[in-house]
Amino acid sequence: MDPSVLGARLASSAIAPLVKKLFVTEGPGAGLVDQPVRLSAYVSFRGERRTLSEAQLHRLAGHLVHEALTSPGERAFPADEATAVTDALARTLLALGDLDMDDVQAVQLGHRELAKALRTRAAEAAGPPPDHHLSADAALFYTSAVEWACLHVLHFFTQRSTFIARTLVAQSRVQAETIAKLDELITRAPRPDTIRAAFERRYRTHVATKHSKLTIYGIDLTATPGAWPLDLAYLSLTSTEEPVEPPRSGALADHLTAPRPATTHLADRVLATHPKVLLRGVAGSGKTTLVQWLAVSATRATPDGPLAHLHDRVPFVLPLRTLTRHGERLPGPERFLEAIGSPLAGAQPQGWADHVLTGGRALVLVDGIDEVPDVERDRTRTWLADLVSAYPGNRWLVTSRPSAVREDWLADEGFTELTLSPMSRAHVDSFIHRWHSAARHGTDAPTTALLDSYERQLLTAVTTQPDLGRLATNPLMCGLICALHRDRRGYLPHGRKELYEAALAMLLARRDRERDVLATVGRELRQEPQTQLLQRLAYWLIRNGRTELDRDRAEAIVGEALPAVPEAATLGDARTVFAHLLLRSGLLLEPSPGAVTFVHRTFQDYLGARRAVEEWDIGLLTQHAADDQWEDVIRMAVGHARPRERAEILDGLVAAGDRATERRDRSRIHLLAAACLEHATELDPAVRTRVGDRVNALIPPPNPAAARKLAAVGPLVLDLLPGPGELGAEESRMVVITASRIESEAAIPFLARYAHDPSLSVRSQLAWSWYRFDTARYAEEVIARVDPEGLYFSVRSEKELRVLGELGGRPRVQLTGHIGTDAIASYVSRYQPQALTILNHRSLTGLQCLRDAEKLHSLVIQNCDKLLDLSALTALPALRSLDYTANLHRPPWESFEALTELDELTVWALHPGMSPDDWESVGAVQHMTELGLDVELLMAMPDTLVLPELRRLALFYVQQENPVDVSSFAARFPRLARLRIPSMGGHEVRLHGFDRLPETVEVSYD
Q1: Residue 992: which residues within 8 A CB-CB, separation 6 or more?
Q2: pTM for this one?
């Protein structure tokens, strides 16, 4: 820590009251002395006139340390050393009563020498120096705090004694002037820390304002704004993490939907447990919106809120399309703000970004790997790896479309890969409601009633019309569907291509008329000439591997096209025409001065594909078959093409796949060809057969990732998948994963054929996939037929729970998400389950809903942040196993202590910290059999704490890099049988003391 920082943290207003309380209060005339007075006669914590106990002095020192730690900006030292620093400071101040000197001698020494004498006396009185066990930063703070206190002590003496005032008046004046000047400097001088803190506050405000609005497509057709507060418009989606290893040992392994297909996370909370994340998502899935939400949340997260992991984080939003627009070298931290065009770049203090990253306080949000040209991605990866290596301890989120980079692209840097899940039926319903709520804002009564009607119609349509349900899988498509449904008064086009065509017509032809813009501008340009010009801009971006271009280049492209589009030329020159497109089309944005981009990549791909077909660039399309930036372009080109052109594109894709030397590229191209068939309304049957043959060679898929890619082809895959009994258990599971990921009700009859499969993993996948389909139909055709033996049935809504009850209930149930306690209580009372898992229930506070669960033997609770009252469990006669995981909150240790009848108690504590009181509570839970926690928490465990029944211990490495000594584990955990190290941050795990572990302890690494 910079020594000058201390002044900013310990101004006179903070430290003077502490010094005043160190000394006794004298009566009138006490200062009228004619000789020096010994220091021991002044102090308030010694002698007959004692008014301050040593414990009170310790609390005063603690208050001072707390004030320094909670001040804005850089922390003076790690927060976990607060107690140690307080002890050292209190011990040193107590030495004032032991100094063998008087007040005059103290004043003559000066504050630095007096501080040195205090530290020396404290060491002589009680062993080693007070700061011997402190880190460098903490020791520097301690030294500076003692010196600063001594400065105020001397000032106190010079004001108190008339003798000192007469003999040392000059020095007294100097002391007073020094303190006054220092206080003035604290307020006015350009100290590095105060400048950084002031800029950081200004930057946070800017980020919160810049990213606090979200565009909802289609709402701006009427006299309402197109951007809405992020708080109202943001929809919290989920992400999935494919398991690398089987579920962990203990209750969760035995009772959580058997071989769980994937781990589900709330997308905005993944950084709580994974400090480095590569998040994949299809176009329009909400990646950029999530980045906005995280950036804004970081500016206002509280230490005890649901986003506590973002508290005090400084967000850096880095859109790669902007950083790579000119093909320049990617920026270092000092150029982050300049590179994104931030208006605050010029005001940034020198070294500020480096300071934030070095302190491990940054939230780095890198958006759009897929928007970097393929040839530049290795350079981008190196840039990211260098940043992560140079600045450990920060939080990192990198987004990409699914196929832009290979699996494990950032695995060496410790990144966890997750995928944004398609919107569930509940998400779609919520989005539709929010969209219409936003649209109703400020409307008159008849319009409000009409919008209410449209909302009800659309909610019914997405449930009853399979084709529409297939389209409504991400926020972009849901927004377009809502807008078109309203614009067309309840009529919706069928198919993705028709949806985009209708959206373009809505934006290009009707938007200005609906908003009465033409009455103001007086000129109108039909849809077709606008489309021709926009196509050229889109195709230039695609061919050059960009999603953003300079305005000068855009105007030049328009200028080259104007002779061929005379209707557009009537508006004026290229600059005028481009300005019209930018302002009126609703498809272009100017994210920063001089830069132009499409409002969404999807529109760029759609228009660029149309231009490619018009140019007959079939060879160029197939040449880029292995380039992820061209995937959507090629699919849409097949939709735009005429039958002969379409056949040429598909045959070209088949040939390109056949020529590929890498199996990954070959599979990818053939799957792309198959996905294109969805858009091929008319096609030569021979071509369709050739494509089908290539896809058939990819069945069964070898792993879940390949299964998801195969499912993206669509319903035609169902005709190619093998039925039950034709494959082994694992291959059958891959087939079921594929079918369950196909967004069509046509998958239900196929999945029903696997309902009697004996494999638990296959049946688990069937049960887990219920939420993807119509609740009643899937229950009747699949759930009702699945053998319940050993199987947890996954329930994500009250409707599913009610339907499961109508089927007679099941002995093992997994409840995920917000399900009302009345519904849970009713099910438990009537059907008496033997085992329950409760996941991600963010509002559940108690378990009174289980009071009638007389046969409940096993209970798993995970990610239920508010569930702290477990008292109801003490009345359950059959309960023998409890598994409780706390991600962001303190586990209810006191409740565990009362559950003495349990045979198995598993607690995973993944929250940020453990206080001494927490460890005392842990020690009281003597019957705990499994414990999982971060290594940093374990290192703070008291040496005397023993857990006699603990048999399994899991240690998480989120950010800890220091070696861990396990030599004491045999004494602390005498019955330990397994030590598991599931690394979550990519760090090398280093353990010492293996020779002290009993040979019976099994050690495993994940």
Answers
A1: 963, 964, 965, 966, 967
A2: 0.61
